[in-house]
User: Fold this.
Amino acid sequence: MPTPAPHNPATCPGCAAPDLAFAAHDHAHCAADALARAHAITAASGARLTPVRRRVLEILLEDHRALGAYDVLARLAADGFGNQPPVAYRALEFLVEQGLAHRIQRLNAFTACAHPGEAHAPAFLICRSCHSVAEAEAAPARDALAHDAARLGFTIERTTIEALGLCPACKDQA
Amino acid sequence: MPTPAPHNPATCPGCAAPDLAFAAHDHAHCAADALARAHAITAASGARLTPVRRRVLEILLEDHRALGAYDVLARLAADGFGNQPPVAYRALEFLVEQGLAHRIQRLNAFTACAHPGEAHAPAFLICRSCHSVAEAEAAPARDALAHDAARLGFTIERTTIEALGLCPACKDQA
DNA sequence: GCTTGACCTGTTATGATATTACATACATAG
DNA sequence: CTATGTATGTAATATCATAACAGGTCAAGC
Assistant:
């Protein structure tokens, strides 16, 4: 693969309109950019973006949908990688740790991160029909919760915010 | 069972300090009150609080922790009810539909609702150590998300907000 | 160059969670 | 008392996830 051009936020559609899962956009650019960032991020942290891991990321980047571990596994097996669950789960775990993918609790599934490298812990808008996932800003919601938690003496470590509903495309069909 | 006294918010600890999962409180009252409300709520809606369903609610009400469906099932089986998964799942689904219990996605588990009858869609504070669950106010968080969703043309139907961390008791132990 | 050690991949086996499908029982309205 | 709808019981299976171990790869240091 040729070395990708350095990322330029000013010209990157993903940066200009970050929550574009539901909007028409240049997805080839979107995916290629995310992959390029993934190379940069892992190189910087000393982590290894091995063939399996990279392939899993590519699979997740094919669109803005969430895929189950076994779906990913089937794709991997078709590509000649191992076909036992740990192969997929380990690669997915790695990507999540590196901030390159997110786990969607509601679906027991995984989706590529739309903003890799930008520290964030987003909220997700999940289409119950097509399993598209968009990332939304979660900071206000987190802050509100933090207040209640502090009052109760509870220490929050991680917060999951997921909204299930219908994306624009699926709404039109119905 | 004797008819429970009508619910009086002014004298009910659960109403005075609603998020008491982590605080010392008169839990016998707390559970009895929730059970009494459950009878009232189901009677009002025409739903039937059958023996299995009632027993599942009692089990969940034993404390403010989340229990897996199979944990509930084992308890049911010990009480002479069926011991196949659908027995537990159906009762739990019923309780969730009636607003008498909540599903905790993060744990694949269920907890009795702390405020049955009060229309709400709460956020949860979940102790990763003891699986205690407290309910917190989710309205501000939902509102913030709704704004983003509207901008993207996404229709939110249900929102899950779950914070994982340590409750005061488990924090003290560590 | 070889050894060592860390890490990654593959595989077997199993555990944990959840649903489908169908049979039976039970309450109640007519 | 029978038809109907609803609830329960059971078997079988689907789906999601991890533990445990064997073998391979690769780079650092001798």
